[in-house]
Amino acid sequence: MRPEKAAGQGEEPIRLMQFTRSFHIGGTEVQVLELLRGLPQSYRLQVSVLQDAGPLVGTLRELGFKPEEFPLNGSLMRPNTAWQILRLARWFKQQKISLVHVHDFYSTMLVVPAAKLAGTKVIVGRLDLAHWHGPAKRAVHAGFSRMADHVVANAEAIRRMLVEEEGVPASRVSVIHNGLDLPRFDARMQEGLLQPVPDTGGAPVVLHVANMNHPVKRQEDLLQALRMLRQEGQTLHAFLVGDGPRRAELEQQAAEMGVSDLAHFLGHRIDVPALYARATMGVLCSSAEGMSNAVMEGMAAGLPMVVTSVGANTDLIVDGERGLVVPPENPARLCQAFRHILSNPGHAQQMGQAARAFVQKELSLERMVQRHHALYQSVARSALN
Fold this sequence. Notes:
This protein has 385 residues and is of the alpha/beta class. It is 45% helix and 15% strand. It folds into 2 domains: 15-178 and 364-384, Glycogen Phosphorylase B (Rossmann fold, 3-Layer(aba) Sandwich), CATH 3.40.50.2000; 182-362, Glycogen Phosphorylase B (Rossmann fold, 3-Layer(aba) Sandwich), CATH 3.40.50. Strands 3-2-1-4-5-6-7 form a 7-stranded parallel beta sheet, with helices on both faces. A 6-stranded parallel beta sheet has the order 10-9-8-11-12-13, with helices on both faces. Helix 3 (79-95) crosses helix 4 and helix 4 (105-118) packs parallel to helix 5. It starts with 14 loop residues before the first strand and ends with a helix. It comes from Stigmatella aurantiaca (strain DW4/3-1). It holds the Pfam family Glyco_trans_1_4. This is Glycosyl transferase, group 1. Keywords: Glycosyltransferase, Transferase.
């Protein structure tokens, strides 16, 4: 818990818990850390997890937090789940938690019923379009979202899904975009590469940052677009950042398409800002997507981004203004967008500058924290009054 400071004359401090699955590297975990850094000192902040693990745990502890662990130990269907719900409800009461903000699916399964048992206000974060889940999980997540006191989506497309498909009252849904710490991002760009990159001989480079766990990221469409450009006599290299069980399959596809010399699989990297600084453009060609930190970082780097017209991508990119928008699973249109950027450097530069300006105005870390602070005050104070 962070040391307490005065909340204001006559006011009890809000005892706020941030609850997430773990602190492995991911967009959600980074946003939780940014909230912990940025929220006013008047909060009594605590952190809980399903698993006290991940490379970001060290950063969490440097901020002064030791997370309380409520492990699932496997399937949600085991008796341990009920035990952890009861244990968590008792802990809410003992710690006098006013409000808990839960950030992911599995944590929501524990936190919402525990909060209702304890009489604690609960905010559920919905950060994607539930495209990872089958019908049963989607139905359960929707039900728990309706039970929450409020739901936070990080994109308009997610808000629409919650209201129109899942039946969450519109009055209990807010959209708060992710935030990016631009000074820290710029500093990381200037630090330079921490690992070498392939020599492209000065040829243009497109950067793709995404995991290789699920076909939804559609790296194969990028490979097809590289092949099409090569057939037209144009050379474009791709740096593919990320790793996962699909990597070997994608590398094999690159070989079969004859673009192994153009598609460079870099694995996990912690110097992504410096990679963006060396790219000509960025791309995210997913068939479904939430609010992508990868797209935000490419915009912050002043690059024209090529994205598919799914999920929150169109919250970030206006076609022809801050980048180019193409249909999903359409390598030919992806190739066309790449060709446009390569052939029109002036327009590419204008789009990159507009993207950077949008991040500065709409996606700052300060704006993200301030909007969460206002929501926390509204929801928690309604419980105390």
